[in-house]
Amino acid sequence: DSGVTQTPKHLITATGQRVTLRCSPRSGDLSVYWYQQSLDQGLQFLIQYYNGEERAKGNILERFSAQQFPDLHSELNLSSLELGDSALYFCASSVWGGRNTIYFGEGSWLTVV
Amino acid sequence: QQQVKQSPQSLIVQKGGISIINCAYENTAFDYFPWYQQFPGKGPALLIAIRPDVSEKKEGRFTISFNKSAKQFSLHIMDSQPGDSATYFCAASKSIQGAQKLVFGQGTRLTINP
Known about the structure:
The structure holds 2 protein chains of 2 kinds.
Chain A: E1 5-7, E2 10-13, E3 19-24, E4 31-38, E5 42-50, E6 53-57, E7 64-68, E8 74-78, E9 87-94, E10 103-104, E11 108-112
Chain B: E1 4-7, E2 10-14, E3 19-25, E4 33-38, E5 45-50, E6 56-59, E7 62-67, E8 72-77, E9 86-92, E10 95-96, E11 99-100, E12 103-104, E13 108-113
Parallel strand pairs in B: 2-13
Antiparallel strand pairs in B: 1-3, 3-8, 4-5, 4-9, 6-7, 7-8, 9-12, 9-13, 10-11
């Protein structure tokens, strides 16, 4: 158990809908990351927050947004969902924002039908 | 410039054998090279990592070999065990102002036959 908690574990929704994925980082970790894992694209970095502020951005679509709250939990919002958004979304956390060990949660499976 | 290429896609090794997975990168600004292990239904977990100023790092049965001039690095698993059967990902990142954007390889599905 990495200590990173993600909810929900599984989610099925229709195209055009909006969903929110939630993440609680490990106790004491200030940095939160979101990654997307799919068969065709592999594991891709989406976005990183550090202590509430956006620190780095990857291949995150404009339809997707994220935030980190004062209690350090984070949410990833996915809107106007398309079939191609079906993937496993991982949250990860680390103590600080630079070159240190990143711990991944078990992921949220999103299926768009 | 941001790609990390990993091979092979899948690998079958007999118990007790040596498993070798290779990765190549293009961006010379990368300064951190971790390997992650992922079991079905779980998130990736850090196995071992190396920085470019070191040519080899060993932790138990796991060794990373790093060739900076060739821009390649590899994972060696000695005395491979059935419990090592998992998907392995190499990754690379460059730290900029406290940010870490891991670029992952496509993964290698390793099967250790008993």
